[in-house]
Write a structure and sequence with these properties.
about 90 residues; mainly alpha
């Protein structure tokens, strides 16, 4: 596997269930949520419809930026032995 992905961090070093390392959790969901809740949601059916519509128009750049941050975040987490690392990320 490392032959195909240089500088790959082995899965055994990944902390389990870390929202700080899931691009959807640390960037994408909050951006989508902001877009969805720009208007009042009256029921679950409307929420589902709005989520789907907003996802279809969601800027690819936000997703790309989240993915670019993943390796940086993973390395920071490993450096901190799985501890808090948000304050140690480069701006």
């Amino acid at each position: 596997m490392s032959r195909n992905t240089p500088n790959f961090i082995a899965p055994s070093l990944w902390p389990p269930n870390s929202p700080d390392l899931n691009p959807v959790d640390y960037q994408v969901w909050s951006a989508l949520q902001q877009r969805v809740y720009q208007s009042r949601i009256h029921n679950v059916k409307q929420l589902k419809k709005t989520l789907i519509e907003e996802w279809h128009h969601f800027p690819q750049g936000i997703i790309d930026n989240a993915i670019k941050q993943w390796r940086v975040r993973l390395r920071a987490c490993v450096r901190e032995n799985g501890g808090h690392f948000e304050n140690k990320l480069s701006a």
